[in-house]
C-alpha cells in the first residue's frame, strides 16, 4: 500500500477551468471572483456578509483588532486548539485565558468559561472541535450576561449546524479556514462572516492596507477613482486565483460531506470493540462536519507507539491537539487558574486518522485492518 496521506483535497475540472479563466482575464488579485466566492459562502452559511481572506488566522486576528482588544484585556478560549487561536490574542496585546474542555465533547466547557470571567474579560473565542458544535445555548447566555464579544473559530466546522443554524452565525463573527487539509480547500485561505454590514466593511479596509477601496473598485464607467488610506491596515486579502478554487469547492461541499459521513460510520462500527474512546454519538439536532476522526487511547505510551506503528505502515495521522499550555512558548503568556486540565490529558492520548472524500475503499479497509492488528 502506498502512503495514505492524512489529509488530501479533492480537485475537479471545474476548479481548473475557473483558474484558467482567471489567468486569461489578467486579473489575479482581489476582484470579481473573490466577491462571488464571498456571496456564495454567505448563501451557504446563511450569513448576511462575508469577507474572503488569506487564512483563518488572519480572520481571528482581524476580528480581535476590529473589536479594539488591547493590552490588559483578557480573552477566554479553549486549550484544545491550534496555536493560531491563542497567538492571535497575543498579537493584539491581550492576554489568553484558558477554560478547560468537556471530556465528552472535547469542546470548551461553559461552566469553565464562567469560572474564568473577570472584569478584564472582553471576548470569548470558541472552537467547534473536529466539527462538533459547542454548547451554543449556554455560551450565548454567558456572553449576554457578561456582555462579551463572541468569536467562533469554525476552522473545522464549515458544514456544522445546530437546530439547522450554521456554525459561525451564533456569535458576532465566524472565522473559517480553507487550508489544504480542510473540508473546503483553496490551498490557503479564510473567511469572516457576520450579520453586521459596517463591521465587515471596516474589516475589509483593515485587511487591505487600510485603503478605502481596492484596485478592482477604482475602475468603472464613471472613470478612475482615487483611494484614501483611512487605517494602518494589513495585507490579508484573498486573491481571485484562490477564490476560483473556492467557488467550485463550495459547489461540491455537500457531496464531499456525505462521503466523509460514510467513512466516519465505517470507523465507528469497525473500532467499537477496540480499547479506545471514540467520538460520541451525534444528536439528531446537530450536523457534524466530519472534519476530524479523533480517538483517545489509554496512555501517552500507547499513543506514541500507535503513531509510529501507523507511520511505518504508510498511514498518515495527526495529533489534534496537544494542550496549548504544554507548549514552551505559551507557558508564561496565558492565564490558567487550574492545573491538570482535562485538555492536558486529552492532548497526551488523542490522535486523528484520515477522513477525506477521495479516500478509497481499499485504503479505508487497510487502515481498519492495521488498527485491529495493533490492538491484538
Structure explained in plain terms:
This protein has helices at 13-25, 32-45, 56-66, 83-91, 110-115, 136-146, 197-207, 240-251, 253-270, 300-312, 342-349, 361-375, and strands at residues 49-53, 74-77, 95-98, 121-127, 149-153, 161-162, 165-166, 173-177, 190-194, 286-287, 293-296, 350-353. It is globular and about 75 Å long. β4 (121-127), α6 and β5 form a beta-alpha-beta unit. It is built from twelve helices and twelve strands. α2 packs parallel to α8 (240-251). The chain has a seven-stranded mixed β-sheet with strand order 1-9-8-5-4-2-3, sandwiched between helices. It has a three-stranded antiparallel β-sheet with strand order 7-6-10, with no helix packed on it. With 376 residues, it is α/β, with parallel strands linked by helices. The protein has two domains: 13-251, Aspartate Aminotransferase, domain 2 (3-Layer(aba) Sandwich), CATH 3.40.640; 253-375, Aspartate Aminotransferase, domain 1, CATH 3.90.1150.
